[in-house]
Amino acid sequence: MTQQSEPAPSTAAAPGPAGVPTPPPPAPPLAAPRPLAERRVWPRTFHDRLTAPLPGLKATARFAREGAVRPGREGLADIPRLPVEPGPLPRAGAGDIAVTWAGHASWIVRIGGLTVLTDPVWSRRILGTPARITPVGVPWDALPPVDAVVISHNHYDHLDAPTLRRLPRDTPVFVPAGLGRWFHRRRFTVVTELDWWEAAELKGVRFDCVPAHHWSKRTLTDTCRSLWGGWVLTAPDGRRVYFAGDTGYGHWFTRIGRRHPGIDLALLPIGAYDPRWWLSDVHCDPEEAVRAAQDLGARRMAPMHWGTFVLSAEPVLEPLTRVRAAWEKAGLPREDLWDLPVGASRVLTARPPRRPAATTAPRHA
């Protein structure tokens, strides 16, 4: 049976005696890790997990009449200015956390001694979309051995079959509920499917599947037949990286932050948001992404899901300028916005070991 999602909580503190606010109830404890590659039975559909209804015939007709899927000539003129700085992967010790942006939602995350790929798309083109407008940030041949892959959902710009065919079939893959059969058909042997708020562990690193405001579809007949979500990766020393995958803004960010306090870095989407009336339920705009980082309680934010594929109508450079302005307006430290060029990296070094308390020899009279 699938684990049911929890209702959205009120974020306001309830008044206590004499009008004194009482803190919200503590978040439920984290689930015990489930076995790797566990075979499970899932519901036929996950429509009940939708945050908002999918567009109906009226909205689809409006989009066909007035919607735009590409920016105009002026919006595309800044393609040569998109930041691209490919370079070698930085050195990272077993206790370090290093992230490298390959483009779109594809990251090379090194955590707890593992190399983890998120939504890996190394293809030049995906179905129904013009070719990528910036190169892949890291050549496939330059990658270290891949220890694990996490997938957020089955849309073509996040689940890319040609890229995944490059991996050894015994690579551990972590996917939302119902997506495992796609990998089993392609002979992957270590596929772990998780529901929201479930977790598994690989060599001391914890992989938690968390909710997202999105949906799933890959063919004409499989709408919401598999789940969608983000991932919290927790190193053995307790440091955390949150990978949002693809998501709109909403209440789940606060819940994720309460369950996983002290997120060190949030990888959040900032692009593919225009027209807003069509995409607001499933894609954050830059201002919402900054608000989501605050809801999560994340110490740092790295923007993604922009500057790679033209999926919507906003000018190609606008997500970057708007997220920088929103970060500054929120009064957040500039060094905590990791607005990386495609191919660039940042490293969080290992925490220094705790030094024993100094002792003072007793004085003699």
UniProtKB/TrEMBL annotation:
> Region Disordered: what ranges?
1-38
- List the Gene3D superfamilies: Ribonuclease Z/Hydroxyacylglutathione hydrolase-like
User: What ranges does the record list as Low complexity composition bias?
Assistant: 1-17
Report the superkingdom from the record.
Bacteria
Q: Which segments show compositional bias classed as Pro residues? A: 18-32
Which residues belong to any copy of the Metallo-beta-lactamase domain?
A: 116-306
List the Pfam families hit by this protein, alphabetically: Lactamase_B_2
Q: Entry's PANTHER family? A: METALLO-BETA-LACTAMASE DOMAIN-CONTAINING PROTEIN (PTHR15032:SF36), N-ACYL-PHOSPHATIDYLETHANOLAMINE-HYDROLYZING PHOSPHOLIPASE D (PTHR15032)
Question: Could you identify this protein by its name?
Answer: Membrane protein
**What is the originating organism of this protein?**
Streptomyces daghestanicus
Query: Lineage of the source organism?
Result: Bacteria, Bacillati, Actinomycetota, Actinomycetes, Kitasatosporales
